[in-house]
Amino acid sequence: MKDIFDQIFDTHKDTRVFFSPGRVNLIGEHIDYNGGHVFPAAINLGTYGMVAPREDDRFRFYSTGFSGQGVVERTRDDLAFREEDGWANYAKGILSALIQEGHALTHGFDLLVTGDLPKASGLSSSASLEVLVAYIANTMYDLGLSRQAIALLAQAVENDYMGMHCGIMDQLIIASGQKDMALLMNTATLETKAVPARFKGFQWVIMDTRYPRKTTESKYNERRRECEAALRTIQAVKPVNHLCELDPNTFHDIQHVIKDPILLKRARHAVFEEARTLAAQEALERQDAIAFGKLLDASHLSLKEDYEVTGFHLDTLVAAARQHGAIGARVTGAGFGGCAIALVSDQALPDFQDKVGYDYHDITGLKAAFYQVTFEDGVGEITI
Q1: Is 257 in contact with 236 (CB distance < 8 Å)?
Q2: Most buried in the list 65, 83, 271, 356, measured by CB within 10 Å?
């Protein structure tokens, strides 16, 4: 990595290295912007950043994943969004937000980014990058930001600078993850509870459809608007701030006020996904893998039929996983392609990838990728 850094930036400065994980959400999908509980974990795949300070006010960015773009160079006074800057906009957005908040970025830096998160997979590569740059800046300029503040900054950049109206889950788990744990996260209050996230006799496997998520941003924002419309209708008869404040019984009693069938389905997913997530915490704490697997299956069905964010490739991959040893599987992330997660028995694991991959390729013509992941700490400085 250092050799690439010296070659790209034509320098031999001392450098520091940071790692920002990706994330997988075990259950609780599309409810982080509905005031619900989510259950993510930081994973061992992620984004690495090698950085060296400069004496002037210039920032230079280079990514091995977008090497054709070359070095993007901007000054401290020139950090506005530019389409041609591509991936570097995420880094620029963080720096711009810090300046707007009144932080003194007293010098520039050179940043080399590399990583092993598959692109457009739903493992949150953009949030991983945003939190990485925020943590680097916090460390380099001694800003004193908490991990929660870093997460909120990164979310604001995603919302306001990049135009993706996401919730807080991705940024908060990447900033605050704990090794071997999933964090039950109340997205309305940002309270978290760490829960050991392993079942004896089973392994977590991430399955990448290798089908790029082409319409995620527009559809994600559309789903959020639909939930907001459903909430406004419900608030006429029930004083709630978020859809996920409703339990299934209460929702059943008042759902008749939602006349639009599309909005009804979106709201139903949010309410019942919240209930599934709380049930999943209990299943994990009592080590009931079978119950957790059933909740995974129910979540995927809801995301397919009520929220309509899965699609042919994800549905095919999830079905193949269930056929070959997964006791539960579901889309993870925004959907419309990307990844699914499966809870797979140790006995089935040796042949799982080959059998699922064969069936998936036979039906779709695409070759899936598989990652047996571990759960790790959040963003931090590392030694390599």
Answers
A1: yes
A2: 356
What is the pTM assigned to this prediction? 0.89
Q: Are 219 and 266 in contact (CB under 8 A)?
A: no
Q: Which of 32, 170, 208, 306 is catalytic?
A: 170
Amino acid identity, residue 100? Q
Query: How far does CA 316 lie from the centroid of its chain?
Result: 22
Strand, helix or coil for residue 357? helix
CA–chain centroid gap for 270, Å, is 18
Interaxial angle between packed helices 88-100 and 147-156, expressed in degrees from 0 to 180 and rounded to the nearest 10: 110
> What are the chain's domains?
2-196 (3.30.230.10), 202-372 (3.30.70.890)
Structure tokens belonging to residue 1: 């990595």
DSSP state of 243: G
pLDDT, tens only, 100-119: 999 999 999 999 999 988 77
- What pLDDT, in 10s, does the model give residues 19-43? 999 999 999 999 989 999 999 999 9
Three-state DSSP at 318 gives helix
Tell which residue, 203, 202, 204, 208, has the closest CA to residue 370: 208
179 C-beta neighbours (distance < 10 Å), count? 13
